Structure formats: structure tokens, C-alpha cells
Amino acid sequence: MSEFIPGFEASQWVGLVAPKDTPPAIIGRLNGEINAALGDPAMKGRFADLGGVVLPGTPADFGSLIRAETEKWGKVIRAANIRLG
User: Residue 44 and residue 49: Cα distance in Å, rounded?
Assistant: First the structure.
């Protein structure tokens, strides 16, 4: 698309979330296990085969990604004057 629309960008991401009051120890354990799985060469290869890239990180990293994406796409929605039906 960027060949036809200068500056065009689109992406998607997937992450796991837990309820707000989940104990930090459980969040830490889940994060450690998920990062370990994403660090496995076979897992990375499978994601790559599907056209994906793994982004292991901390819960804070994921929160930053969510905030940045929300801000970016919020600007797009406002600029395009997109409204719900």
C-alpha cells in the first residue's frame, strides 16, 4: 500500500492481558514463561513463517505499546473525522 499512498502504515499486534487486580507474582510468572516461549528458536521460526515478529518484554513495555498505539490511531481517527455509525 505504501507504494500507492505515501506514508501509509498499518500493523497489528497481539498481547495477553490479565484482570486489573491480578497479583504481581502471577503477572511476573506469566510474563517470564511467555518470554521464555517467545525466545525459543522454534517458536520464533513459526511466527516468522506466518509473517510475524515476536516482541518479548515486560508488562511495562506492553503498557507503553498500548498507550502509543492508542495515541497514534486516535490521531488518525480524529484527522479522518471517523464516527461510530
Answer: 9
The grid coordinates of residue 41 equal 528458536
What is the CA angle 61-63-64, rounded to 5?
65
Per the CB < 8 A criterion, the answer to whether 65 and 13 are in contact is yes
- pLDDT by 10s per residue, the chain, length 85: 677 788 877 788 999 999 999 999 999 999 999 999 999 999 999 999 999 999 999 999 999 999 999 999 999 899 999 998 8
Residue identified by cell 484482570 is: 19
- Alpha helices, H only, 1-85: 24-39, 41-49, 59-79
Query: What would you report as the CA-atom Rg of the chain, rounded to the nearest whole angstrom?
Result: 17
